[in-house]
Records
---
Amino acid sequence: MHCDLVDMLQCPSCGGTLFWQVQRVERHQILEGEARCTNCSATYPVKDGIGIFLTPDLPREDLWEAVDSHLTRFLKERPDIEEKLLGSPLQSLSPADQHFRGMVLAERGLYREAEEAFAQASVGIYTDEYRRGSRAQIDFVIHRLKHRFLGGEGLVVDLASGMCTLVDAILKETSGIRTVISDFSPRVLRRQKAYYRWCGLADRTEFLAFDVRKMPFKNNSISALTTYVGLQNIQDGANETVKEVARVLSGELLAVCLFHPEHDVETRECLRSYGLEEFAFEASALDALSRAGLDARVENAIAVRALPTPKSRLIEGAGIDAFPLKETVLEWCTVVVKRKQ
């Protein structure tokens, strides 16, 4: 993490001031060190340049990491399936298995082959209009960031970055914007850090492990926040999340969202069982943001036909996404969020 982030950070547990002990710095990057809260004595390490600001009080279930870990264990136990997954011609695999192949290759640092597998999988997993709708939101966010940072340089904090769909485009399609990549899984961040080293973009990336329900940033410290469907994947955390966004935001949050139809009772009940209901529907998402003192408006809305994602042919019961449950029309959009004046 870059040394200039230090002045933006506080204890995520109590909001106290951090005392830093830095063991290793290279080119203005803190590679090894520790921050200790002067108020509650909580400690937060920096390891291999990744600042870990997780608090022990919040339950967390990383669905992507769970799938990743299960896949790794499964393939170790079933080398015959691993041979089929990795050794078969890519075109012969189902879209879900192409995606799983990409996950395995990325984990092993074979990024070019992983990119090919993910690209091929996307064509079979999502409808053309779904993919165009997603890309339209990414273009919208990048255009808005370029307008915000007219000089070409700036710092963007991306929330719940996961597989870095939006971050990847920001880094590759702008020239000077630095991005803080965040997730509450240090494992995911280590993998993304290795990938951006391979891409030659490491000097424009920062990595912080934190939970968006308790961010390690000072009040009004972030002028540009982004997220790609990140708010919609935080279980049982809508109220805490929007309060934290309102606390740290000094400028604008650009939240790419994928909203379900308000009248879909079956999907609503299923999402509720996962603790994901509030941000899955436009009306409740905007209401939650408004209650936190934020002004939120939907822009660039695009209705798209979506199908349930296909299952694996090699790994029984394995799939990519739990939603949608059935063929439906979803809304891609970008929610532009600012503090109320």
---
Amino acid sequence: MKKNRFKRYIFVFAIYLSICLLSGCGREEPQEEREDSVIYIGITGSSGIYQDLERVNMELEQQFIKKLGVRVRLINTGLETGENYYKNRQMGVDIFGMYYDAFCSCVQKNLLLDISDYLDAAPALKEALNEKAAPQDLGRDGVFGVPKPLSDLHSNGVILNRACVEKYKFDVSLVRQAEDLEPLFEVIQLNEPDMVPWALEKRRNAVLERQPVADILDNCLSGILYEDNQPVVCNIYETKAYEEQVKLAKRWQEKGYLARDILTCIENGKNMVLAGEAFATECVIKPDETQYDESIYGDKIVVVPFENRPVSDTESDWVYVWGISADTRYPKEAVQALDLLYSDPEILNIVLYGVEGEDYEVEEDGRFSFPAQDVLDKSSYTNTSKWKYNTLKAGVWQGMSLDLQGDFQRFADSAVRSAAYGFWLDEQQLTVDLMKLRKIVNEYTPWLETGLCDTDSYLIEFRQRLQAAGSQRLVEEVQQQLDDWKMSEKE
């Protein structure tokens, strides 16, 4: 009897279990699946303080859920660019930025999502593509990436240590170009022996990195000089303008204006000026970046623009590109999320500046300020790569113009547009060994542009090696492609 009763229990339980399995009764979504239902935006190691990302991500998630109904989070990739695509994929990154060379590589390998089918729901991305120079034909149909929101327009200038400017009563209105700094350097060198007169903007950069001689068309040596801006290609390393720059670097090196460890110092120039370790460093002059620096660090620095107009070339538009992984599980939502990253003020404020009330406060006039604490001593979320984002759509800080978009537009209107704007070189048509020439350029320029060589003899040797490797033929072939492009533009 007990045996029959037990069989009946087994039979009933089996029926119940079958019903549950068919109906989904008691089923829970696996925790792993819930955690994976996120779109990740990759930010580089220098873009944020890692331990503060969680609270920033909580705020970001709320905004994206409200606007798109999806979870979106920032993830620190530890990479400077999107070049290591496979590491990005391993980390589950859906949206990431990369320099143009890495973008081309990703396109050729079919690693990026073709977003053309989703652009109708992404007006900001569509606008960015329509405003820029036509993208290079990379042999793939569809649009795979979008250039960063703001063209990389800028002129150069200098950041000076304010304490020294005020102490020695320097008249900064007399500083119109780099050479005008030399009398100031003499005073600093005499009275501030522990202070470097001029620090490089970044490690291993040229003494003057932000003052381009020409629009370089082959990422090597062939370019159009900005001083006359005619569609005539030359070897920029054979020009008087380049020679003047390297001779300035040599003069500053000989006079002791540069640090001895100029090629190994890992600290950037602005931080050295802020810390009182350097008197001056080169800087970008562009309304959003310049106004931000003056707002945040104005009590410690003085920003002085040189008398150089900004320049606009094809690379200005495409130097940095945002794309979406071909492996994303949420293509439509990822495109819409990237669109908000280009256009939505609330999203941008979080990505750029953190959480309102913790990382910044909003004053009565709508401008941002830091909570009552010195910014330099504050440990909070910090995005040091603001140039990759649409800063004009985000909030402005105390001391900045409320018409920042108008300021930027006027600045852009003043730019010199390269006569080769919109031109893309087809390297496949070249008969010269471009890699060999680039290797020579990379061998000589760090020493010439920091003055760490016998400039006269080194420059002669540099030019001779370039000529022996085919530099003149390269210039002629680039010129021919440019001429053909000009003719097609007229047709």
